[in-house]
Amino acid sequence: MNWVTTIGIVAAVLTTSAFVPQAFKIIRMRQTKDLSLTMYIMMFTGQLCWLVYGISLGDFPLILANIIGGSLSGTILGYKLFLKE
Amino acid sequence: MNWVTTIGIVAAVLTTSAFVPQAFKIIRMRQTKDLSLTMYIMMFTGQLCWLVYGISLGDFPLILANIIGGSLSGTILGYKLFLKE
Fold it and tell me: What residues contact residue A30 under an 8 Å CB cut-off, 6+ apart?
């Protein structure tokens, strides 16, 4: 595996899993006031579109990344919508 | 342009520009307490890696998306690090 592929994988892992610490912070602190609802609606919808695009092309990395990413941003969106602070 | 390409472009626009409303919310409210610092460090670093990957491959959409995305997440990271609340 050359360095270009390696940096692509590092990029994918970082941008996909970046939502994990945000989800844990919300679960721990039970505060979402400073988070933008519009951001998470756009991100979740966008990741669903990426998922449909990945399925259409049969692109496994795109499918996997957006199942994980969409689950995470969907969790944050759910807390933002329904958490009683 | 077929519907698969269209949904891919919609996906790219949504996930790239999702950080815009979050940045505006921070500038307006001057509050970042509920945002995860770790998330924005990971996202910004990941987008820089995507940018290097895109430059290595000469992939223009990847370069453009990650210049925009990295500028936005970098702005949010800067506010998170330096804003006196």
Answer: A83, A85
- Which residue range(s) make up the domain with B30? 3-82
CB contact under 8 A, A49 and B8: yes
Please tell me the pTM assigned to this model: 0.93
Residues of chain A found within 8 Å of residue B77, distances taken between Cβ atoms: none
pLDDT in tens, B13-49: 999 999 999 999 999 999 999 999 999 999 999 999 9
Looking up residue A42, the CATH number of its domain turns out to be: 1.20.1280.290
Q: Quote the distance between the C-alpha of residue B57 and its chain's center.
A: 20
A50 → chain B, closest CA residue: B11
